[in-house]
Amino acid sequence: MGLWGCQPEGWVAEWGEGALAMLVTEHHVYFTSGVDHSGLLRIARSGDEDEPTVFHDRMRHAVALADGGDAVYVATKDGVERVPRVGAGASRLVEEPEGVVAICADAAGVHWLTSDGVLGGIEAGERLAPRRPGRRAHALAMDATSLHVATADGLVRVGRSGGAAVPQTRGPLRATQVVVLDETLVVAHAGGLSRVSATGELELVAEAKGAVGAAAGAGDGVVWAEGDRLWYWDRTAIRQIFDSVRVLALAARGRELWWIDGASRSLRRHML
């Protein structure tokens, strides 16, 4: 139910080979290509617009987006940019780290992780010193008080304003994504989807036969792409929600799921 497609001929095909980033905010969906397009695009969640508009056209190679309340934070080849969501305010480069692979933000702060495992951020207006939360840190998630970082030795928790890394799981880990669901942490990895137990064990909740691609918290659980299919785990059961898709980017807000589908060359919406 609730499927909607935006299909101006060729736009997904043109940008589809790039590393797309996507974000769903209260009223809009933002997305961009990391390689082929130099702008940040936006379309209304209401479906009233037939095609996206260029919201900001002076950035290159964006790889990740985060919602900072009154602004969108964009990780680009040049660093981390802050783009106001309302009005004609200019974007502002807030930091120039090289190789940002993940970014998280809310109204209180913005935090990022680089490809060489360095964590940086700005919290309550204070710029934090770069830190290494663990060996080969490679994925990042955030809640109201903590950062959750996937490292080669497991998941660790770090205070948003600083402090030592506290182990949350044991054993080696190679996550593609970490998702925060209320007080539950879910890790997407090569073998599927696992939640973190109270004792630090990774409990497999969904086994993957292929590579786990994009994943996002949605509704009561997690949606993820595996091969040409989209799956949903609602904490009690697993169900396939679509097949014959090629997910280039994926994001959700509440029970509303959005993705860019390379197979149908469309921007799609689905209510879980």
Q: Summarize the biggest pleated sheet.
A: 4 strands, antiparallel
CATH topology of the domain at 174-272: Neuraminidase
Query: Architecture of the domain at 174-272 in CATH?
Result: 6 Propeller
User: What gyration radius follows from the Cα positions, in whole Å?
Assistant: 18 Å
Helical residue percent? under 10%
Shape: globular
Q: Which structural class do you get from the secondary structure elements?
A: mainly beta
Oligomeric form of this entry?
A: single chain
The tally of beta strands, per DSSP, is 28
Mean pLDDT: 86
In what order do the strands lie side by side in the largest sheet?
1-28-27-26
Q: Which features characterize this protein?
A:
272 residues, mainly beta, Neuraminidase, four-stranded antiparallel β-sheet, 1 helix, 28 strands
Provide a concise account of the structure shown.
2% of the residues lie in helices and 56% in strands. It has a domain at 174-272: 6 Propeller (Neuraminidase). It has 272 residues and is mainly β.
Walk me through the structure.
The chain has one helix and 28 strands. It has 272 residues and is mainly beta. The protein has a domain of 99 residues: TolB, C-terminal domain (Neuraminidase, 6 Propeller). The strands form seven sheets. It has a four-stranded antiparallel sheet, with no helix packed on it. The chain has a four-stranded antiparallel sheet with strand order 2-3-4-5, with no helix packed on it. A hairpin with a 2-residue loop joins strand 12 and strand 13. The model has no long low-confidence stretch (mean pLDDT 86).
